[in-house]
Amino acid sequence: MSFTDGKPFTATEAQCKGPWLGRPNGELFRCFLCGHKFEPGDVVRWQYTNDVSGAGGIPLVCEKCDGPKEVIVEEMREGYAAVRGRYWYFARALANEAGIVAALEAEERNR
Ligand SMILES: [Zn+2]
After folding, report:
1. Residue 4 and residue 82: Cα distance in Å, rounded?
2. Nearest residue to 17 (alpha-carbon basis) of 38, 34, 33
3. Ligand 1 centroid from CA 34, angstroms
4. C-alpha to C-alpha distances, 104 to 69, 79, 83, nearest whole angstrom
5. Which among 47, 52, 56, 85 is placed 20 to 30 Å from 70, CA to CA?
6. Which is higher by pLDDT, 31 or 93?
7. E-state strands within the chain
8. Spacing, Cα 39 to ligand 1 middle (Å)
9. Burial of 62 per CB tally in 10 Å (0-12, 13-18, 19+)
10. Residue 71, CB half-sphere, CA atoms under 13 Å: how many?
11. What is the mean pLDDT of residues 55-64?
12. Which helix (H) or strand (E) holds 89?
């Protein structure tokens, strides 16, 4: 199990209850594509995408959503586009909830 080896692993109870992305209790131990919250025994995989422009991050994917890298990258790009476009308000509301609006605004100004 690593961020870069691309090999599936089986979720453990400790992982499902552990901190992910700065949140406790496995709250964000979820599939990046469908939102499924992983449970012990689920098959999970990291898809390395930091080497692809516009698809940053290393999404966790569930067994159901897993597939070729190109398909996962395209879904990530579509998700980012939807959040920055159609769902901009929700992105802002969630960012505000997390206290990172100032960082997003600075990012916008620097584009
Ligand atoms: Zn999924």
Report:
1. 27
2. 38
3. 4
4. 28, 17, 13
5. 85
6. 31
7. 9-10, 43-46, 60-62
8. 12
9. buried
10. 7
11. 87
12. helix 88-98
pTM above 0.85, yes or no: no
Q: How far is the CA of 106 from the centre of ligand 1 (A)?
A: 32
In whole angstroms, give the CA distance from residue 45 to residue 38.
11
Cα-to-centroid distance, 111 and ligand 1 (Å): 31
Ligand 1 center from residue 102 Cα (angstroms): 30
45 backbone dihedrals φ, ψ, rounded to 5°: -145, 140
Do 59 and 49 form a contact (C-beta atoms < 8 A)? yes
Q: How far is the CA of 36 from the centre of ligand 1 (A)?
A: 6
pLDDT band for position 110 (cuts 50, 70, 90): confident
In the reported structure, the alpha carbon of residue 38 is separated from the centroid of ligand 1 by a whole-number distance in angstroms of: 9
Q: Which two tokens stand for residue 98?
A: 């997390």
Q: Kindly give the pairing relationship between strand 60-62 and strand 9-10.
A: unpaired
Rounded distance from Cα 44 to ligand 1 centre (Å) = 9
